Structures are given as structure tokens and as C-alpha cells.
């Protein structure tokens, strides 16, 4: 408090008591790490009667008493600021910071405990009636020790590992986001996820204003990773970004197929185009992983100039990274344009080459899965699948489609809702090599993050030839497809028990026998097997 020495002790105590109670009540509203904030709230509420006791008694007008009060007021204010900061933060952000938050709460409780001890010493006689209570309270507070829950730490460690290893595959990102959302009670819906990511962006801007560079880099990496999840990306924005890049490449000549990288895009150590560029104090830019290995090997010089480095701090070069990402996206659009032209050329050689290029694009990053769909490559190869008699072509298309839909809900829905569903199912009645690829693709299409996609399973069940084809596989020689085919068929039995009868008619009786042993009255009353 400003001018504390000019304010009567009684007034100081009244204001401080009110602030303590207000902070205690606010602490209960923090959404994550509730245990530590609830303990903070409890300790603050326990302090309130002590302050009220001091108001009722004649408090020593000593310098020591005023200094102790000033210290306590400062610590309670710090607790209040801490509570307000995290009470208004997003849940995702709170989880990311859980390890630090509990330590901040621990420290502020200890500080308040020390200030309470000093206040008690300065007013021993006044507090004699409740001295045992005060001593116990300040002792407990000074020994406060917290840890974030192991489940929270496991999620944060997994996330940090994914960032470090640059795990950008769609399945990992989707699972990671769902795990985080489930841990903090946020629905896995695009609108809710967008709010959480927007909250992290706001925290990043605040950290930038405070010039906390390490925090900015950390939050930026979190945003970059989580934004790639299906439920985090606005498909309209993805399409808009794609067509913006297409407009740029259309300005180039018709013969242009590739934009070469600028020299600044290449690492000074590996000479490869960088993914996570960082700058040294000398201005030299390197790939983060490469310069870390350089330092680990005992090198303390600039890899480009050989100058001895006085400071080995790595500074993320955000603008350069954004430029590299844009360069990659423009070249991706060039590749999609070229693949499209080759697929439509009716050239067998170009077809195989184009499918290989599609597979490479799919493996590079998750956004390419959306872009090949927006660029109509998925539609084109589905059409070719339905019209080609080549075993090799069918196999390669099925493998490519599996890569395109793997862990990607939008692409799965597009394939299932298109004529591709019919073409894929018809491939079940084909060469054994094709059968394996089509069964694997069907299994992937039927999965979502929670298990079997019931809606897609119902669509598959409605196709008149599905059960017949699957039973043929189970009774046939293609052993590496039998297990997966049986899993699909078993799920179709759960969708519609009539499929059990259908399977028996085609010579596969296992499911029917199982139901007979179970004695399902409902099944036998509705069964049409013997009709």
C-alpha cells in the first residue's frame, strides 16, 4: 500500500482482510490445478480471523508491525494477481503451464506464511489467545509443496516430445488434441477448440509484450501443432489459403514447375531447407536440431564464420520460418497442378508416377491431405479406380487413398459419400493382392477417434454385396486379410443381425453358431434364415 505509515493500523487491517477474503473466494474459480488453488483459498480464509483478531485488540504501533503488514499486503496482492491471471486463462493454456502454475502457487503460499510469521512475532502479546492457531497456520504455509497431477504431466510431456520430434502426422495431432480436451473438460468441437487456441494466441501476444521470448516460442509451437488437428482447422480457411496460393503460382509461366529456395532458407550446417530455423548471436541461421548437435559435439563456434560464440542462445527466426512455409506451400500447389495434369493425360507411366507423388505429398504434412482433396486429386483417382482393369493401378490407388484418409475425418467422409464407396467395395471381388489393400482401406474408413464409425458401418452394411465379398475372403486363401475382414464383418453383425443370416447363406456359420449358443430369442424371432 502507498503511504502505509500514514494510514491507521485499523484501516490497513480492514482493507487487507477484505482483500484476503476476496482473493480466497476467487481462487476457487480457477479451472485447472484446483487442488493447489483450493489450498491457497483455505489458507487465506484461515488468515482472515487472525487479521480480525488484530483489529479487535490493541495492535502494537511498532515499525516491525507495519513492515510485517506491508509484507503481508504485498504477498496477498501477488496471490490476487496470480489468481486473476489464471482464473481468466483458457483451459488448454492452463494445462500447458500446469508444472509452473503449481510452483507459483506453492511459492506465494510460502511467502504469505513467512509474512504471517513476521506479523505474529511483532504482535506476540496481542495474538496470545490464538498463538497456537497462528503458529500452526504459518508453519503449514511455509512448508507448502505441490506437484501437478501425473496425468497432466504425462500429457504435457507427450506434447513437448511431439514438438521436439516434430511429429506432425495427423493421427498424433488428433489424438493429442482430444487427450488435452478430455483432460480439461472441453468438448471436441471446432468452435470450442478454436476458442482454446485463440486463448493460447492471446497468451502468446501477452508474453511478447512482456518480452518473454522463450514463452512466445513455446506457445507458438503449441499453436502450430494443435492447429493441424481436424477439429482445430476451419475447412473454409484451409480452402481459402489453398486458392490464395494457387493464384500466386498462376502468375508464373506455364512451364514453371518449381520455385527454387532462397539461399537464406538453407541451413548453414546441413545446407538443406530448414524446418525450424534459429539464429545465433552472430546472425547465422541454422536448423535447430543441427545446431544442437553441433553444440553437443563440443563446438562453440559459428558453423559458418568459425567465430567463437560468446552467447550460445538460440533465437527462433519466426519470419524466416513463415517464409519457408509459404515457399513449401507454393511448391505444393505446383506439384498438385502437375499431378492433376498427368492423371488426366491417360498415360500409364505418368499415372504411376503421379500416384507416387501423391503418396509423397500425403506423408509430408497433414495440410496436404486437405489440399489434394480440394485440388480434386482424390476424385480423379477414385474415378480411375472404377474404370481401370490394371491390378497394379488398383493396388496403388487403394494404397494412396488409405494414406489420404488415415486419421483424416473430412477425407473419409468425402470418400464414403462419393461413388468411391461403390468402387472400393467392388474391389473386394478381385486379385488377392488387391483384396488385402481394399480390406485395409475399408477398415481405416470405418474408424473414427472413438472406435467404429457407426454411420459408415451402416452404409457399408446397406451395400448388397459386402457380406458376400467378406465371407468369400474368410473362406479363401488370402490369410493376411482374414483377421481384418472378420473384424469388419463382426461389426456389421452388430449393426444388423440380418447380416449373420446373410453370412450363413454364403457358407460362413461361425456367427450363427455363436448366437445359437447364446440363445438370443430376439435374434431367432427376427431371423429370416429359414424363411
TrEMBL record:
Which CDD domains would you find in this protein's record?
MLKL_NTD, RING-Ubox_PUB
Signal sequence residues: 1-26
Keyword list, A-Z: Coiled coil, Signal, Transferase
**Record-listed E.C. numbers:** 2.3.2.27
| Any GO BP annotation | protein ubiquitination
Q: Do you know which Gene3D superfamilies this protein is assigned to?
A: Adaptor protein Cbl, N-terminal domain, Leucine-rich Repeat Variant, Zinc/RING finger domain, C3HC4 (zinc finger)
Keyword presence, NADP: no
Q: Give me the reactions it catalyses.
A: S-ubiquitinyl-[E2 ubiquitin-conjugating enzyme]-L-cysteine + [acceptor protein]-L-lysine = [E2 ubiquitin-conjugating enzyme]-L-cysteine + N(6)-ubiquitinyl-[acceptor protein]-L-lysine
Looking up PROSITE patterns in the UniProt record yields: U_BOX
Reading the lineage from the top rank, the first entry is Eukaryota
Coiled-coil annotated spans? 62-89, 127-154
Q: Where is the U-box domain?
A: 260-334
Its annotated pathway?
Protein modification; protein ubiquitination
Tell me if rRNA processing is a UniProt keyword of this record. no
Protein name, UniProt field: RING-type E3 ubiquitin transferase
Question: What species is this protein from?
Answer: Pisum sativum
